[in-house]
Amino acid sequence: MGVLATRSRRIVSCLAVAAIALAGCGNKGGDQKPTNGTATGEPIIIGMDEDSTGSGAAYSVIAGKTIRLAIQDINDKGGVLGRPIKLVVENDESDPTKVPATLQKLASQGAKALFLQSGSAAILQAKSTLTQLGLPAIAPTGVTATLVTPPDNELIYMLANTTNDWAQVYCGAFAAAGIKKIGVLTDDTTTIAALDKALFAQMSCVQFVATEKGAANASDLSAQVARLKNANPDAILVTSVGGAFEVLAQNTLGSQMAGTKRFSLASIGNQPSSWKLAAPGALNGLIFMGSINTENPRTKDLIKLLQDKNGKDYDITAYDAQAWDAVHVLKAAIEKAGGVDDPKKLNEAMQTIKGYPATFGQGNFTLSFSAEKHLGADGACGLSLVEFGSDNKPKGPWATFQPPCNK
Question: What HEC string does 262-290 produce?
Fold first, then answer.
């Protein structure tokens, strides 16, 4: 108990320092200036609501960094329609009550379209504000289906497979592995509460025998894991925004429930900094809901680009790929619309994008939109169940089950 608590406090401290360092990579307001390149004329101003300090920072900062890189790359190649893109940024801290003011501030800075890179609960609150502002928006890493369903969904778009698809994939995996009883270990964030509600409602394929919750900043989860163990589940599903909680959860489960199959959300697979803080071998055998498939040629190209920019040891995540695609989908819409001065025309242009070859998912995974389809994913093959190896790094697709690529 004493050793575990000491290790947990060290993990929390390390992650806090890392989060501060990452948050320092971007500033509020106009934190990205357009480069000269061959682009001329007035810049196209795009706004980003990026949670860099709240519960969604663990993934929003990763995506935000790649959004900036994608914009820089576009500007270096001549911009959009010969005009550079300027990114302005504000932070809602994944707090739904702060969303309206955050988006209004971005609009007041001249933003003609928005990236909503925050927690799902916060983005849900954005829908009605977007309707009032009349600005189209993309949630690059959003996975909650209600983000793009009525009401007030006319101006909001998502790329990735939703929790409805996740539920089907988990159920397929549990059936293939003979798992019938599930124990859940979850954090106390509003983002995960909303995700759990949506996900578990679709998972009648298994019996939930116990659910244990811990504070996102917890330093000890031993009691929760002990109660889960007493429930005798076939497998454990950890649902969290990642970061310190996920590391502590996996460390505790690895020591107290060794031999019990473990599953997790995308969070742990998309946070390489967490892998390094986990106890040796603590992630071995853990299966997470991934979206990166290195057999996808576009993924390979993005890996090379990101490693050229960030160093050869950079580990690509789904957040990187989805952020990259969000920027280029918006670029395509701006080109189709002939500019950004008419937001209605820009929104209609978004709805004409078909068969965009994504940089995440399996090789034939594409994104398409229409007036009725604001979720870009064309089929479940944007997902992949990935297993960790003994070195606490993802070793590849889980051999027992993979989602079919049916559109």
Answer: EEECHHHHCCHHHHHHCCCCCCCCCEEEE
Q: What is the pLDDT of residues 310-368, one digit of tens each?
A: 999 998 999 999 999 999 999 999 999 999 999 999 999 999 999 999 999 989 999 99
**Of 241, 289, 226, 240, the residue nearest 263 (C-alpha):** 289
- If phi > 0 it is left, if psi is from -120 to 50 it is alpha, else beta; for residue 81 that is left
Domain 163-293+384-397 CATH class label: alpha beta
Q: Return the exposure string of 371-387: e unless at least 16 CB atoms fall within 10 Å of the residue's CB, then b.
A: eeebbbbbbbbbbbbbb
Between the alpha carbon of residue 58 and those of residues 21, 112, 136, 212, the distances in Å are 12, 27, 25, 22
Give tens-digit pLDDT for 210-238. Answer: 999 999 999 999 999 999 999 999 999 99
The per-residue pLDDT for 131 is 96
Residue with tokens 């990114």: 87
Domain 25-161+296-379 class?
A: alpha beta
Distance CA 333, CA 183 (A): 44
Please check whether the two domains, 25-161+296-379 and 163-293+384-397, share a CATH topology.
Answer: yes
